[in-house]
Amino acid sequence: MDAIIFNIFGDLPIITKSWVLGSVAVSVVTSTGIVDGAKTLYNYDLVFHRGQYQRILYSLFNFGELSWVSMINIFITANHLTILENSLTTKRRFLWMMFLMLSCILIMSVHTQPTASLGSILHENLLYYIFKKSGNQMNIPIFGGNELMFLILPLYMYGMMYFVMKKSLFEISMNFLPAHIIYYCDNVFHKLYNIDLCKTPYDIWKDWGNEERNRE
């Protein structure tokens, strides 16, 4: 069993592997009481008005105390991160897209408190982005050779959040709107106008350097 776990972990790409280690570490320190669980909760006022910036880092890796449920959530999220990380051309672009999505989430948090940890909300956005890019490939096979449309699952969750949990549409949109904006900039706008709005700062600097050398 241990060998299987190590083999699975070893096959993960580097960014996803780092995220798994961070998530397990946060689960361990909160379960053992090394870090108070309340300090892993993200709140805009506490972070940006009182300078408790570590809450962003904790919340990014916060999937609850160490348990089978948290481990399953981490495993599922790692699977989705692996799909996206392997689909992009460079690791820095993957990190940059995650940073852009997280920035959108933090901006939205000015107006309302996130309904879950930053890690969970970022995961929902990454799922939406993967779905937009892959389309029907994300559908779930069911009996008789039929497929269940993947989008039904988040739509059901959003319906529960709105009608049962009484969350606002703005709170719900935090789970997919950042990813939709990034998808539009990275795919639609890029194809229409041949302008890469999601280009990493390193690539911008690299292209600028190449242009300067060509002029010389």
UniProtKB/TrEMBL annotation:
A GO term, aspect molecular function: misfolded protein binding
Membrane topology: Multi-pass membrane protein
A Pfam family this chain is assigned to: DER1
Transmembrane segments: 56-82, 94-112, 148-165
Keywords (A to Z) from UniProt: Endoplasmic reticulum, Membrane, Transmembrane, Transmembrane helix
GO biological process per UniProt: misfolded protein transport; protein quality control for misfolded or incompletely synthesized proteins; retrograde protein transport, ER to cytosol
Localization of this protein: Endoplasmic reticulum membrane
Biological role: May be involved in the degradation of misfolded endoplasmic reticulum (ER) luminal proteins.
PANTHER family named among the record's database cross-references: DER1-LIKE PROTEIN, DERLIN
Family note: Belongs to the derlin family.
Record protein name field: Derlin
Lineage summary: Eukaryota, Fungi, Dikarya, Ascomycota, Saccharomycotina
Gene name for this UniProt entry: KNAG0A03730
